[in-house]
Amino acid sequence: MSVIDKCASYTRAREAKAAGLYPYFLNFDGRDAGTARMADGREVVMCGSNDYLGLSTDPRVVEAAARAAERYGAGCTGSRFLNGNLELHDQLERELAEFFGKPAALVLTTGYQANLGAIAGLCGPGDIVFLDKEAHASLIDAARLSRAKIQWFAHNDTDDLRAKLSRVAGTADCMVVVDGVYSMEGDLCPLPELVEISDEFGATLLVDDAHGGGVLDKGRGTSSHFGLTTSVPLITLTFSKAFGSIGGAILGDEEVIDYLRHNARSLMFSASASPSNTAAALESLRILQAEPWRCGAVSDNADFMRRELTALGYEVGASQTPIIPVEIGDGVSTLLAWNLLIEQGVYVNAVLPPAASPRLRTSYTAAQTEEQLHRAVAGFRAVRDQVLRVPAHV
Ligand SMILES: Cc1ncc(COP(=O)(O)O)c(C=O)c1O
């Protein structure tokens, strides 16, 4: 047996394609913030991107990216550590630290790498990383990479965390790792209790704010939403969602960021974020400060969809954010619903285990127009009787 032998017997994807129910790697031929054109020419209302503020196609952001490519080239061809650092990266760090209210920031090439850098850069054998059961894959991978011991606690269950931390307090250095906003459920972490428990047991709290940064509290994120920015020692961000670009950052105290600058392997051994991606993130950061209405608009759009989907009889969970999960049933019914919605001109994400239990992950943006949202509602209404087992009451 070799390590590649299992590939020949991996037939799940091929079977799903043959059944016309393969929801991954779809080609999009073009898009604006609220709609997308599929490769076969169909236009769909995009209810599945993370472009929360509608900035990825904003002409100012696109223009900033183009100018940076013209000035610095298409890529930096090296890590920031050696030859890939630009004034743009440094400038973005200064403006991120100031906006998010932390002493310092470190810009990395993706949010995934920000998590790897922060957790594996600070934790090692002998330490313990406490992970929420629903933590993002990048946080799990980071904890595994660190070679620290991993202790899981039940999702958002601070009693479980407290019990587990109290058992090891004083015997190891501990980090508590959570998402600010959970990417599949759209629910928030119980930050005040997490801060209190981490402080009580001397654990370092890290909040991955990939989905809260740029969105909650006029963009200042989950920690600011709870008024706890100074009490959270480490915050990680991505630029691939509200910032409409690619890249990531770690926010923290000066000496921690300086340590990571010289010890985070995902920063030191990977090429820096491209000039255009960095300039786009910087431009988005400036726009979101100048146009805080965008955070209100995405929240209003999501509230509208939450109300409409609930009224149609869909089960939408406990989300308070632009991410709204829609429960349909098992994997096959979820895929069938996903397919029917595309036929109605509505694109959502079909999520299957192991990412999460089967659901449609819907998400909304500040740039969606009323007309687009009504089209999305009409799509959900049209397929409802085919995809929901519960009797319709609207
Ligand atoms: C919670 C969370 N953290 C981190 C990441 C990784 O971000 P990036 O796309 O910048 O690598 C994601 C993206 O899927 C995410 O949802």
TrEMBL record:
Enzyme nomenclature, EC number: 2.3.1.47
Top-level taxonomic group: Bacteria
Signal peptide positions (record): none
Broad EC category: transferase
Family membership: Belongs to the class-II pyridoxal-phosphate-dependent aminotransferase family.
Pfam families linked: Aminotran_1_2
Keywords: Ligase, Pyridoxal phosphate, Transferase
Keyword Translocase appears in the UniProt entry: no
Domain Aminotransferase class I/classII large positions: 45-378
Gene3D superfamilies cross-referenced by the UniProt entry: Aspartate Aminotransferase, domain 1, Type I PLP-dependent aspartate aminotransferase-like (Major domain)
Keyword field contains Ligase: yes
MF terms (GO), sorted A to Z: 8-amino-7-oxononanoate synthase activity; ligase activity; pyridoxal phosphate binding
Protein name as it appears in the record: 8-amino-7-oxononanoate synthase
Gene source species: Streptomyces roseolilacinus
Cofactor(s) the record lists: pyridoxal 5'-phosphate
Reactions this protein catalyses: 6-carboxyhexanoyl-[ACP] + L-alanine + H(+) = (8S)-8-amino-7-oxononanoate + holo-[ACP] + CO2
